[in-house]
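Quick one: structure tokens for this chain, please?
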Amino acid sequence: MDQTWSEMNREMQALLSREATFGAAIDQLIELRKSLFDQISQIVAAFPREAFDRMPFAGAKGYHSKTLAYSIWHIFRIEDIVAHEMIAGDRQVLFAQGFDDAIRCPVITTGNELQGGEIAEFSRQLDIGQLYRYAREVAHSTDRLLKSLDYDGLKRGFGEDTARRLSGSGCVSRDPNAAWLIPYWCAKDVRGLIRMPFSRHWIMHVEAMRRIKNRLCETARKGVDPIGYCGLSCDHCDLGAWCGSCRTAYNTCSFATLSPDGQCPNAVCCREKGIDGCYDCVRLEICEKGFYAPANDGANAAKGQAVFIRERGKKAFLKEQDRLRAGKNKGENVQK
């Protein structure tokens, strides 16, 4: 589990147990949820449509055996059902805002009943843009609900009436892989629901999405030129484990994710000019786009690497990068 998320969740759980710190617990929970949702936003903004129905870990045991699309649907269907059918007692966001039609989803359930190829086929049918909007609306709705709660209300439990209402809603499949959810939820009080669907459940599935994303990027980079348009080496970049390179559709480098359209300015410029990289551009020395922006602390270093490639070539550049990494690793081992 991500150390930062784990620590935030642990602190929230402790704060939630005392009335004096209840308000701080809710603030901490909302901050944790924001951090987790940022991960989802980055994936949706940067990845091509095809990524959302891929199953790079098909057949594995664990949440990472699903798809990105399924993960988003599953997280927020469960939250929508629990927050509105159980705690608030009002209409789910899926129906109240018409997302049941907009997403084009073939089911209204949590998806627990889907297996293997069914998950991939299910994912292919979804409108990812609308799915993301639904997720965002559910998250915001739950945040508002959390802020409206008081400490005494945390002890409220759920009985047979709630279980019958959930069963009658059709939002939980009768399949054994899903039917267990209703008694599981109804056995908890409001505090228990906060501790699982609204926090830990997010962490488990967003971490699974990270694993899926990283594997998709790793696969996309195979056989691709490891040197980015700007001149940085993807093989020697700290982001290399989760970026698919600006030369593929799985580009999640820092400047791509910072750009409104998800495209790094250096990559866009090179494609428009029809050149292999910034190192082939006559304006390299005066360029201030993307990685070369004066506000970027690493602008001069990035540009220096592009100049090196222009003068000595890619092969020599990668060899020098290997040498520098070996020296760095040796130094770290000596310090240990």
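The CA atoms of residues 13 and 195 lie 7 Å apart.
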